[in-house]
Specification:
Length: 177
């Protein structure tokens, strides 16, 4: 059984770092918002392509496969209080797009570890818009999942905890490079 895979490292590191590093980053780094519902409670998280603590990203791995991350964060008192990190691949073949490898990671300040769907078939990501233009890549859609608690986001163990329900939507323009 594979306990740890390098493919988990990047999303886990981004989620953990964005939660625990507290620097004076002001709202000017906000690109948009991500409305989310966590266990029935509504939140409006910020989304940014420039915030170093909670950066969303897009990259083209090969001409027909792109990697997308949408990192929503709730900032309180200069620190990130909550972070919802959604990552997925977009495979485009014959004009049709297929979502692959969807993951959701939820972290909250004051809680050791976090909730993740990394090794589950549970997360669902649906795209309503995926357009590449000279301005960049516009990605809009929704997500849902039931991540389970892990005491460590870095060690993939069989030990699991409470499950949370997370759903939301996003709209983000990744500027052309």
């Amino acid at each position: 059984m594979e306990i740890f895979s390098m493919s988990y490292l990047c999303p886990l590191a981004v989620a953990a770092v964005s939660l625990f590093i507290a620097t004076g980053c002001a709202a000017q780094t906000e690109t948009g918002t991500m409305p989310v519902i966590v266990d029935g409670a509504d939140y409006l998280l910020s989304v940014s392509v420039t915030n170093k603590r909670a950066k969303s990203g897009w990259s083209e791995a090969v001409p027909s496969f792109d990697q997308v991350s949408v990192n929503g964060f709730l900032e309180k008192g200069g620190a990130i209080d909550m972070n919802v990190y959604v990552s997925f691949g977009v495979l485009t073949m014959n004009g049709a797009q297929t979502i692959t490898d969807a993951d959701i990671i939820l972290t909250e300040r004051g809680t050791e570890g976090g909730w993740m769907t990394v090794d589950s078939d549970d997360p669902v990501v649906t795209l309503t818009t995926y357009e590449k233009s000279d301005a960049g890549v516009l990605v809009e859609g929704s997500f849902s999942g039931a991540p389970d608690y892990r005491k460590s986001l870095y060690k993939m163990t069989d030990e699991r905890g409470a499950v949370r329900t997370v759903s939301g939507s996003f709209s983000i323009l990744y500027p052309a490079k």
